[in-house]
Amino acid sequence: MEPVIDARGLTHAYPDGTTALRDVDVTIRRGERVAVVGANGSGKSTLQLALGGLVAPSAGEVTYFGETTDAEAVRERLGVLLQDPDDYLFNTTVREDIEYGPAQLGLPRERAERRVAALADELGLTDLLERPPFRLSGGEKQRAAVASVLAFDPDVLLLDEPFGAVDAHYRARIRDLVTAHDGTVVLFTPSLDAVPEIAERVVVVDRDGTLAADAPARDVLTDRDLLSDVGLRPPTTVRLFAGLVDDDAIPLTVAAARDLLDDARSALDPQRRR
Amino acid sequence: MSGVLARTVETITGALRAVFAAERIADADGFLQRRDPRVALCALAALALGVVLTRTLGVALCFAALTAALARLSAVPLRRLFARSAVVPLVSALVVLPQAVLLPGDALLRVAGLAVTDAGVAYVLLFTVRVGVGVALLSLLVLTTPFSAVVAALRDLRVPVALVWVVAVTYRYLFLFFDELQRLVLARNSRTTGETGLRGGWRDARRIAGTFFLRTLDRGERVGRGMRARGGARPPSPYGRSRRLDAGDCALLALAGVAVVASGVMRWSP
C-alpha cells in the first residue's frame, strides 16, 4: 500500500521550550486504520497537527501522498478534527459550520447540501442546523465538529478524540461513520477502549514525545508492561481477561468478550453442549 | 466575581449574542428577507448614501419613513430596530450639540447666557437624523440577511478578497473572544464567594485582562488552525444564496436608485 502520510524525523518544540515530539518517524498507508495513543501531554495532538500540516515542526518533514510536502496543496484530501470543538465551530449557524469546509474546498453546493443533510440526520443534528454553535451542549458541539470534518469526504481522516463529551448512542454512530469511511483513518486518543473497534495498528507515543511502539493493535493492547510504562491502561476487556486466557485469546472488544463467555458457558453447561 | 467587570462583560457579551438572535429575523418571511442578498446590500447601502448626502431635514425624515416602512414589510419590530440604532446617533448628537449655540441664526432661547439658534438646532437635528437613519439601514441589513449571505454577496459583487476576508474573520473572532472572556469570568465566579467590592473588582479585572490577552492569542491561533484544516487558508467562499433577480429585487433597486439620485440632485442643485 502506498503511503498517504510519511513523516520523517519530526521534532517539535513550543516557544516556551517544551519539546512535544522527538525524532518521530511514522508512515500511514492508504486504507489503513491506525490509532495513535499516549498519555496526556505526550504530544499526540502536536503529532496530529504536524501530520495535518497545521503546525510546522521544528525539524523533520511530512510528505503527503508521495507527492508534496505542502499540506495546503492537498488540503481537500486531509480531514483534520481538532481536539476542542470550540476551535472548529466559529460560524453563525451549525449549517454554515458544516458547509464551511465543502465551500472553502470547492465542492459543488448541491453535493455539499446532500452531504450536510445526510450527516445531520446520522448525527442527530437536523433540528440544530439553524442554531448558533455556542448554544449547543458539549456533546452536540462535538457531533457538529465531526460532521464538519466528514462533510467534505476527505481521503484521510486525522481525528483527535472524536468521541469527546458524546453520549453512548452517538458515540456508536460516530464510530460507525468512521469505520464506514472509505479511506484512511488515524485516531488520536488517550483512551484505549475505542481503539480495537476502529484500528488494526497502534502507534504509542511515550511521555517524552518519542515513539514507544508501532505494531498491530493486538500486540500493543495486550502488552500491559508497555502500556504501564507509557502511562496508559489496557482496554477494559484486556484488564478483565488478562491471566484468565492466553494473551492471543484475550478479546479486545465487548462483542468478542461476549462470544468468548458464551463459548465458555456452553462448554460448562452439559444441556447446552448437547 | 461581582462588580463592574462582570457586569461589563455580561452586557457586552449579551449585546453580541443579540446579533446572533438577529439571525432568527433573517430567517423570517419578509420583504427584505426575500430579496437577493446582493440587491439588499446594494439597495440599503445606496439608501444610506442618499441620507448622508442630504442637507434637508424633510428629506432625511423621508428616508427615515422609508426605513421604517422597509422594516415593517420585513417583520422587523420598529422598537427593536430603534433600540439597535439609537446609541450611535445619540453619541453623535452629543458631539455636534455645541453647534446649536455656535451657528449664527435667530435665537430660539437662551441657556446659561448662550443663544440657541434656529440654524444650530436645525443642524443638530439634521445631523442626528442622518446618522440615525444610516445606522438603522445598516442594522436592517444585518437583521434581515444572514451574515454568510452578506459575505457571499460581497464576493459576488467583486469586492476585493482581502476586504471580504477581513470582514468575515473579524465578525467571527469578535464573538469567540467575548465568549472566551465570559468563560474566564464564569471560571472566576465559580470559585469566588462574597462581595469583592470595587477595589477587589478592579484588582480582578487587572488579572483577568492579562489572562484574557494570552488566552485570546491562544484561542485565535487554535481557531485559525481549525479554519485552515477546512481550507481556511484559501479566500472565503461561502455558498452564495443569490439567484435570479425578481420584480421585488428590481423595485427595491429602482427605489434606492431614485432616492440616491434625488437626494444628490436636491443637494447640489442651485
Automatic annotation (TrEMBL), chain A:
The keyword Transport applies. One of its GO terms (cellular component) is ATP-binding cassette (ABC) transporter complex. It is found in: Cell membrane. Keywords: ATP-binding, Membrane, Nucleotide-binding, Transport. Probably part of an ABC transporter complex. Responsible for energy coupling to the transport system. Pfam families: ABC_tran. Coiled coil: none annotated. It is a peripheral membrane protein. This is Cobalt/nickel transport system ATP-binding protein. SUPFAM superfamilies: P-loop containing nucleoside triphosphate hydrolases. Residues 5-232 form the ABC transporter domain. It comes from Halarchaeum rubridurum. Belongs to the ABC transporter superfamily. GO terms for molecular function: ATP binding; ATP hydrolysis activity; ATPase-coupled transmembrane transporter activity. The keyword Repeat does not apply. Its main location: membrane. InterPro entries: AAA+_ATPase, ABC_transporter-like_ATP-bd, ABC_transporter-like_CS, ABC_transpr_CbiO/EcfA_su, ECF_ABC_transporter_ATP-bd, P-loop_NTPase.
TrEMBL record, chain B:
GO terms for cellular component: ATP-binding cassette (ABC) transporter complex. GO terms for biological process: cobalt ion transport. It comes from the Archaea. InterPro entries: ABC/ECF_trnsptr_transmembrane, ECF_CbiQ, ECF_transporter_component. The keyword Metal-binding does not apply. It is a multi-pass membrane protein. The lineage of its organism: Archaea, Methanobacteriati, Methanobacteriota, Stenosarchaea group, Halobacteria. It is found in: Cell membrane. Keywords: Cell membrane, Membrane, Transmembrane, Transmembrane helix. The keyword Nucleotide-binding does not apply. PANTHER family: SLL0384 PROTEIN. The chain crosses the membrane at residues 43-69, 81-101, 107-126, 133-154, 160-178, 250-269. This is Cobalt ECF transporter T component CbiQ.
